[in-house]
Amino acid sequence: MASSRLNKGLLICVLIAMLPGCGSKAQDQGVLDANVTKQASSPASAGIDPATYAGRFQIKLTKEVPLRDIPVPFTVYGGLEESSPTRLRLRAFMDLRGLQEKAPQILTGPLEENCKRQIYLEIRDVTAIGETVKVEGSARAQFTRCKRNEEPGFQYFGATVDAIAVAKAEVRGQCLTFSIESADLSPRGFIGAVSNLFGLTNRINEAVLEKGGEFLAAHPVCPPLPEEFTVLDPIYESGGTREIAPGGMGAAVVGSADVSAETIVKVLGGLKEQGVLEFAE
C-alpha cells in the first residue's frame, strides 16, 4: 500500500512539474495545469458542473487537434483519485465548444459521390441539448445516369432538402464516437413534393444516415494527452455528450489510469528527454 501511495505521489509531482514556468520546456507545452484543490470558476469553464471532473487531484489540459486539417481547440478537465493499488480513478469533462464552432466548416461538403447519386451537405448550426447534439443544415441531391466509365452522366432529378439530425456520442476504446440517432428531412417546394412522391426523399434520408454515420465513425473524438502520458494507459469505461448550458457541447468520461511503478518510470524518462525534469547523474 505504501508503494502505491508513493507512485501516486510521484504522478502528482510529475503533473506539477509540467506547470507553465516550471522546467525548461514547460512554457512551450504551456497548457497543463494541476491543482490539489477544487478549481475556481472562470469564464472559460462557466456552465461546466465541477462534479463531472471531481477528484482529489485535478488537472486541466488545453490542446489543438486537427480534424480534416482544421485546428480544433479542446479543453479537458480531469479529476484523479485512488481506485486500486496500481490505478487511479479518472473523471474527465471535455469542453467541445471549439469543435462545435468549427463543426459547420468540418462537416460541410460532399457526403456521397458516385455515378448514380451525389449528395452534398451544408451545415448551418450545431447545438447541444441534454445528452444529444442537434445538427441543422441542408442536403442537395443529384440523381444521374451512369456513363460507361462509371462517371455521372445525364441528371434526371435534383432536389434540396432541409435537414435536422440528432446525434450522440458513446465511449469506444479511448475515444468518443458519435452516431446519428435520427434525421428529419423537409423537401423544399414543388420539386420536394415530387421527390416525396417518387420516394427519393427516403433515399436521401438513408444516404444521410448511412454515409453520415460512416463519416462520424471514422472520425472519433479522443481526449488529447501529452505524448509522455499515453503510457498511463487510460481506460474509459463510460461517458457521452453533455450540454454546457445554454446549448454548448461537451462530453463526460469516466475511467482509470495506470500508476504502476513501471509506468511512472516511463513517464519520468519521457519528461527527462524533454528537459522538463532534471536528474542527478
What is this structure, in a nutshell?
With 281 residues, the chain is α+β, with helices and mostly antiparallel strands.
How would you explain this protein's 3D organization?
There is one protein chain. The chain is of the alpha+beta class and 281 residues long. It folds into 2 domains: 2-96 and 222-274, no CATH class; 101-218, Nuclear Transport Factor 2, Chain: A (Roll). The protein is 26% helix and 45% strand. The protein contains 6 helices and 11 strands. It has helices at residues 2-17, 26-29, 97-107, 189-197, 200-218, 261-274, and strands at residues 32-35, 57-67, 70-84, 87-95, 109-113, 117-129, 132-146, 152-172, 175-187, 235-244, 248-258. Strands 1-2-3-4-11-10 form a 6-stranded antiparallel sheet. Strands 5-6-7-8-9 form a 5-stranded antiparallel sheet. This is Lipoprotein. It comes from Ruegeria denitrificans. Keywords: Signal.
Keywords:
single chain, 281 residues, alpha+beta, Nuclear Transport Factor 2, Chain: A, 2 domains, six-stranded antiparallel beta sheet, five-stranded antiparallel beta sheet, 6 helices, 45% strand, signal, Lipoprotein
Which SSEs are present, and which pair or pack?
Blueprint (H helix, E strand, L loop, with lengths): L1 H16 L8 H4 L2 E4 L21 E11 L2 E15 L2 E9 L1 H11 L1 E5 L3 E13 L2 E15 L5 E21 L2 E13 L1 H9 L2 H19 L16 E10 L3 E11 L2 H14 L7
Antiparallel strand pairs: 1-2, 2-3, 3-4, 4-11, 5-6, 6-7, 7-8, 8-9, 10-11
Helix pairs in contact: 1-6
